[in-house]
Every structure is written in C-alpha cells, then in structure tokens.
Amino acid sequence: MAAPHTVRVSAVRLSAFQELMENLYGEADRERGVPSTVAWLAEEVGELAQAVRKGTKEQQLHEFGDVLAWLCSLANQMDINLEEAAQRYVDNPP
C-alpha cells in the first residue's frame, strides 16, 4: 500500500459524476431542497440495504448508483466537493 501522501482519490471520475448530477438535476434538486433530498437519500439507502440482503447483483448495482446520485445531489446543494470529503480517508483514515 502506498504512503497516504502519494495516493489520490480519482478526482476526474468523482468530480465528473458530481458535475453530471448537477447538470442533469441541479435545478430540480435545489427546488426540492435539502430536507427532501436527505429524505430521498435515506430512502435509497434503505433500498440498497434490502438489495444487499435479498437482491440480485443487478439490483445491488442499481441501488448503489441511486445512492451515489442522491449523495451527489445533496453535496451539490450544500456546496460540498465529494473529492475533498473522500480525501480524508486517504490522508488520515479514521
């Protein structure tokens, strides 16, 4: 395993996905607001939990994507860069 200072979270891929979610859904997400987005994210996490327990690989893949998309939506609304959030696990894991 590389030393923490030499490892980087993939900035291009995570940033690109977060930007894609902003381009596709940003306006509607902001109209919905943070409280509703948190509720949707929580619902998707519940669906992921069910898919992990009883679902097929295809269902699990679908639900992981949904959770990631809603997480990006929430981060975008709160002006949070998910690359920066993830970087702490590279630099100084809890």
Helices, strands, pairings?
Blueprint: H1 11-32, H2 34-54, H3 57-77, H4 82-91
Helix pairs in contact: 1-3, 2-3
Task: Supply the key terms.
4 helices, 94 residues, globular, single chain, mainly alpha
Percent strand: under 5%
The biggest beta sheet is recorded as: none
Helix count from the secondary structure assignment: 4
In total, how many beta strands?
Answer: 0
State the order of secondary-structure elements, H for helix, E for strand.
HHHH
Number of separate domains: 1
How does the helix and strand content classify structurally? Answer: mainly alpha
Taking pLDDT < 50 over at least 5 consecutive residues as the criterion, the unreliable ranges are: none
Radius of gyration: 15 Å
What portion of residues is helical? Answer: over 70%
Mean pLDDT: 90
**First CA to last CA: what distance?**
17 Å
CATH architecture: Orthogonal Bundle
- What's the overall geometry? globular
CATH class: Mainly Alpha
**CATH topology descriptor:** Helix Hairpins
CATH level 4 superfamily: MazG-like
Write a structural description.
The chain is mainly α and about 90 residues long. It has one domain (about 10-80): MazG-like (Helix Hairpins, Orthogonal Bundle), CATH 1.10.287. Helices cover about 80% and strands about 0% of the residues. It contains 4 helices and no strands. It is globular. The model has no long low-confidence stretch (mean pLDDT about 90).
Brief overview, please?
With 94 residues, the chain is mostly helical.
